[in-house]
Every structure is written in structure tokens, then in C-alpha cells.
Amino acid sequence: MAFLVRLYKIDTVLGDWHSWRQSDTAAVTWYFANQKLDILHPRFFDISSTPSGLDNPYGFRFVEFPVYNLGHLVTYKFLQFSRLAGVLNYPFEAAGRLFNIVFWLIGGWFFYRLINQIANKKTALAVVIFWLFLPYNIYYSRTILPDPLTVSLSIIGLF
Asked: What's the rounded Cα separation, in Å, for the pair 68 and 87?
């Protein structure tokens, strides 16, 4: 069920609350897919000096290391060669969301196991159900941002 509720409109364009952040993150993956795969020099579409105050004529984006973008790229390439690409209107956006959804659910499994070690199965199940179906968690776990991957990897690391 947690997977299914996150599939709602998975292939819509980026036009929601954090669309500017998501489009900047997706642009790095787009450059990897269509220009050059250079993880040490990620690029995006903003060549202005607004983000850093420095000239950026090549559009470098030096924020987090592009681990999420590599996962997005692999998922996108997988969707291109699968039958799902014909079902989805925008497989590029769907790939970014799908990658985070899968990792969020893996993180949820480890979160359940972590709480189960601290408390008991009943408490762990209640906590994880609340965590998986909280509306903000549904929204943020399907964004095209590195945050859901980071949260999931943190939970796995705590476990």
C-alpha cells in the first residue's frame, strides 16, 4: 500500500511546491544522460551568479555529491529499455520519483526493524505505518531531491 499511494501521478511534470529545487536536481541528471557523465563536475541549467555570488559560465552545480543523480540516471535508463516507458508520459520525472520511492520503502523496512529492536513488533508496526502514510512523508518521499535517499541511508546506517 505504501508503494501504491506514492505512484499517484508519478509521471506529472515538475510544478509543485519545491519544483525549482527539483528541476535543478533533475537538470544534473539530464546533463549526465544527454551531455557528459562527469560526477566530479555536475552541471545544471543556471549559469547566473545568483546561487553563489560567483560567475558560473559553465553551470556547475556543486552542492551534494551526485549519488542521487546517478541512481536517477540508472532508473531512467532502465525505464527507457522497459515497457514502462510506453505507459508513462514523462519517464524522466517518473524515474527520479521511482528511485526515491524504492529507497524510502527500503528505509521503512529498516526503520521497522530498528524500532522492533528498541520496543516490540506492535509498536514498530504502528510507528512505521504512521511514518509511511503521513501525508508529508508521502509527498517528500517522491520528490526529485536527494533528501529521501539521504534519510533512508541514514536509517539504514542507524540500524
From this structure: 24
Instruction: Write the CA distances from 21 to 28, 30, 82, 145, integer angstroms.
Output: 11, 14, 28, 7
How much is the pLDDT for 85? 63
Decide if 11 contacts 94 (C-beta within 8 A).
yes
19: part of which helix (H) or strand (E)?
helix 19-34
Cα–Cα distance measured from residue 81 to residue 94, given in angstroms and rounded to the nearest whole number = 14
d(CA 108, CA 128): 7
Tell me the pLDDT tens digit for each residue of 43-72: 887 777 777 788 877 877 878 888 999 999
Query: Can you give the C-alpha Rg of the chain in angstroms?
Result: 17
Q: Where does the pLDDT of residue 101 fall: very low under 50, low under 70, confident under 90, or very high at 90 and above?
A: very high
C-alpha cell at 149: 535517499
Strand spans (E) along 19-118? none
Within a 10 A sphere around the Cβ of 88, how many other Cβ atoms?
A: 16
What DSSP assignment string belongs to 105-156?
HHHHHHHHHHHHHHS-HHHHHHHHHHHHH-HHHHHHTTSSSSHHHHHHHHHH
**Predicted pLDDT at 123:** 95
